[in-house]
Amino acid sequence: MAFSGFLPTGALLDSLIHISNEVSSMEKFPFVQVRNTSTMIRRTKLLLSLFEEIQETNTKLPPSSILCLTELFSVIQRVKLIIQGCKDGSCLWNLMQTECISKQFYVLVKEMGRALDILPLSLLHITTDIREQVELLHKQAKRAELIIDNREFQRRDDLLRLMASNDEKNSKNKGFVDFDKVKDTLSNIGLRDPLDYEEEVSKLEAEAQRQAGTGGLIVVSNINNLIYLVSRAKSLIFSSNEETEKVKASSVQYSLTALRNFDLSSSSQMIVTNIPDEFRCPISLDLMRDPVIVSSGHTYDRTSIAQWINSGHHTCPKSGQRLIHMALIPNYALKSLVHQWCQEHSIPIIEHPSSSLSELERSSKGQRNSSENAIDHLSAAKAAVDAVKMTAEFLVGKLATGSPEIQRQAAYELRLLAKTGMDNRRIISEAGAIPFLVTLLSSQDPKIQENAVTALLNLSIFDNNKILIMAAGAVEKIVDVLELAKTMEARENAAAAIFSLSMIDNCKVSIGAHPRVIAGLVRLLREGTSTGKRDAATALINLAVYNINKASVVAAGAVSLLIDLLMDDKAGITDDALALLASLLGCHEGLEEVRKSRVLVPLLVDLLRFGSLKGKENAITLLLGLCKDGGEEIAGKLLMNPRSIPSLQSLATDGSLRARRKADALLRLLNRCCSHSHNTF
């Protein structure tokens, strides 16, 4: 195998450490593949220690070790994808595929073992502890067997029996054979509230679309059966809960009839206080319980705007613009946010009398079976997607041709719509919103600019949109917003957008190469609010993965600023500042600049004692980096500080694995320095 395709050693180690940290920091395990996931994360953490140790030695590596590291990079990449798939994918579908996924984990463990076969541990300058850990990991990987959790097998069998009994009894009693069994089975898989059920249905629908081209009709049919099962179970389980709540309400003489007989606007004003302005209908100034968009791009409550139109008006109440059509398009994004706000403030969601069609349908069809309700739910889900598509296309049209006021409102609506799910982000980009939003970044209207950059930030969460935003030439204009925007929120969201876009490795280089990006982020780090400083710091940390960007961050004056922020309790970004300083030690310019500080060493010693877990790790990383390779002066300062040795000894005993390893290394280095000074005298 030729080595010309390999990354340079420094970049390879940076990439390995970066991706290993991503895998190691995955905290919330999926409900399936728990054993395989936890075991693989533990193995990755051990490899992370190896990679960091190799990087710290800063010596030339043998070709076989480069080949091994390249293979391990490929393995860990696939580990990340599988674990992410288990976390973000459908629990039910992953459970049905448990044997197949377990085999994928098994294959990766074996590939990890084969890669370690060619790692020349004896030629690497690493500590005995790390060498022993890697040797043990190698032996375990070679002896590893296929792990299939018996509990997951049992849950899958329960699920299959549930589906079989459901099909068998469906035509007889329109319900499940064992209601409690259904609830317990789905609860064990992680479905415990209505939102869990809705999210699972969305994930299954996405899986069905992915499988449609490759999985065949049988696979898609099986997924559709699961969708039907979950929808039907949700309808039964939570409609039962609603009946229970009604009984409880009646027992305390809560009169629903009296509540319905109240005038809606007056009763809602009695219940709801401190409504956010964006949730108020411009006509009634009351909470918008059923927000809709009219052709002018403005949003109103359905009841209020319907009364306005029915009374003979054909203009937008807010702008005075003539309505080119009378269609009322549901604003699902805003409705979702309103409902969420109501739930957080314990405010009941009261349906409007004007939208009583659904109420009449529910009352007249109250005897319908649960299977029809499930089908109605699926039809509604498809209708919701179609409505989002129509809404997005409508709003994009307003971005393209509307007046500044309409563009401001349309950008705001897209900002909200893009906040509520991956499907919405995909649909908005497919509607062609990104180029228009990028153009609006140059608007002289502060709110248009703020809404546009925030909408792009929300859209960029969907990975495919990152590429489209970069291709639209957005970086230049996002930097303009970062530097020149009139609102701090716009500047902060511009920094967050840069962070989001730079999550793709290729974008890190191109964004970092822009002459004003890093300087703009450092300026926000100096001038921003706590949120702005944190956004700027995280973006800089992400860009500083590459050495060429590290030098630019140092040149922009970040080092002295970061040290000042460590002493500023109000800034609230101590951990981020430490992480960025530790990263900047990786380039010569950064190391020299950090060593110039007279106040940093005492600060770091205090952080060893009082910092957070992450803060202690970064503080010890900084101290170790400063003392190595010509850092005798820093080592001398440490030895003279009466708190340093006790703090290091405490960390070496009680710290995290990474902190203990670095504390041991620093104590050995200080011991050598102390011995050398005695021998000199």
Automatic annotation (TrEMBL):
Record EC number: 2.3.2.27
Residue ranges the record marks as coiled coil: none
Molecular-function GO terms, alphabetical: transmembrane receptor protein serine/threonine kinase binding; ubiquitin protein ligase activity
Top-level taxon: Eukaryota
GO annotation, biological process: protein ubiquitination
Domain U-box residues, every copy: 274-348
EC main group: transferase
Keywords: Repeat, Transferase, Ubl conjugation pathway
GO cellular component terms given for this protein: cytoplasm; nucleus
UniProt-listed SMART domains: ARM (SM00185), Ubox (SM00504)
Annotated catalysed reactions: S-ubiquitinyl-[E2 ubiquitin-conjugating enzyme]-L-cysteine + [acceptor protein]-L-lysine = [E2 ubiquitin-conjugating enzyme]-L-cysteine + N(6)-ubiquitinyl-[acceptor protein]-L-lysine
Family annotation (InterPro entries): ARM-like, ARM-type_fold, ARM_PUB, Armadillo, PUB12-19-like_N, RING-Ubox_PUB, Ubox_domain, Znf_RING/FYVE/PHD
Pathway: Protein modification; protein ubiquitination
ARM repeats: 432-474
Protein name (Swiss-Prot/TrEMBL): RING-type E3 ubiquitin transferase
Organism: Eucalyptus grandis (Flooded gum)
